[in-house]
Every structure is written in C-alpha cells, then in structure tokens.
What does this fold into?
Amino acid sequence: MNDRCMLMRKIAENYFALADIHLYCDTHPADASLDGKINELLRETKELVSRYEANFGPLTCHAGTAKQWLASPWPWEIDKEA
Amino acid sequence: MFEYQKMLQYPIRIKTPNPLYASIIISQYGGPDGELGASLRYLTQRFSMPYPELQGLLTDIGTEELGHLEMIGAIVYQLTRNLTPEEIKRSGFDKYFVDHTAGVYPTAASGFPFNAASIACKGDVIADMNENLAAEQKARVTYDNILRLVDDPDVCDVIKFLREREIVHYQRFGEGLRIATDKMDEKNFYAINPSFDK
It folds into this structure.
C-alpha cells in the first residue's frame, strides 16, 4: 500500500470513529467522557486531511481548484495502488 | 446543506467482477430495505421530529446512510466492469443489463424499481421511531441474506461492515425512542403527538 492509500485509510478510520462516537453522544448528551477523545480525533484528522490535500488533491470541492478536484481518482474506482 | 467528501466510509476493492452478485446486491441500493430508502427516511423524518437528540440522530444516521448508498453503488460498479455478453447471459444479469447496461439504477433485485412507498414519515415520534427500528432490522436481514448467497471475501468484508452498522443504528434508535417516551406522558405515551399538539 502506497503513502496516499495509507493516509486515506487513516483519514477514513478517523472519520468513522468520529461518526460512531457522535451517534452515541446524540443519545447520551450528558456524557462528557468522550469530549477529550473527540477533540483529539478532530485535531489529528485536520492535520491528516491537510497533509493529504497538500500532496494528493482536495477531498472536498472547496479545498482546491476545479482542475485539482478532477485530477484525483473517484472513490468508487478500483484503486490500483491500494 | 451537504458537502461531498471524495472518499468512501470503508474501502472497497473487488478484484473479481461477478454480475450475479451485482444483481443480488443492487437490492440494497434501491430495494425496499435499501440504503436509498434508509437515507431518505431519516433525513425527511427530521423536519417533524421533536427533541434535539432525535433531530441530531436522524441527521447523523441519515447522512451515514447516504455514504452507504455510495458504497453499495461502488460494489455494484466494481462487480460489473469489463463484462462480455456471454458472461452477462450466463449469470442472469441480462434482465438488468437490457434496461440499464452497467449503470447503477435504484431497483430491488426482483426488478421492482425504487418506490417511495418503502420509506415512511408519519410525523409522529412513536410511529416514526418504531418504523426506524424495524427498518434497521430489515436491512440487517437483507445483509444476512446477501452473506448467504455471496462467497467472495472482497465483497463479504464490506457487507459485514454495513451489516454491523445496521445493528449500531438499531441500538441508537432504541435509545432515541426511550428518550422520547421519558419526555412524554408516563401514563399514556399516545395521549398527544408532541410534533403536532401544543
């Protein structure tokens, strides 16, 4: 697995962890025990996304030019490098 | 509003195309208990849902389901690439192919196209949350049935991930229903509809 795929995998893992924690917090709003974990994940994910976008292109359409947006593969395409 | 992220929630890399598997798994794209219905069901129930916990839950689960819709589309796309007419005829994919070629169309495996009647929005918290609990179980059963019919590990790994999410969503909707009933008339949950009666 190359650097791009490893970084993408890590970003996806972090977003998944955040989404899953978020669902728990929706139904347990009084439980503040995960706030530290959420902030840690948010901080780490922001850094990983910045590193990914600087090297491999935007992950959202507002993170670069239209040309950059079209240059990287779409996620449903078979990733030959994975 | 929504903003697209150019990534899947869980990676999908299917090495061997298989049109028979595609014609089964398409049911989770546009079938009665599929991800299109799931995402629309939750995102549309939000408007009349009382209580911020439940509005948040429907928003977050509905958004995740849109990501699952994309994952099912990616599976079907990868299973139907580089097919020959002979493979299409032999696998039984011909009945789908004649109308949609290798496009990803929201339909049940039976050929019945996506129908909004398979989603529900009653505008009543008790009715809608019970609907959602049943919907998650029906989707879980569909994934179980897919796992009974498919034996490619590249496909089953992703299907198992999606199946697990149905179980987590069921758990959270159960907690959501409990939150709602705790806020309602303890002697009679059905005395009023908090979405409508003030």
In short: Residues 3-77 of chain A form one domain. Chain A touches chain B through 28 residues (CB under 8 Å).
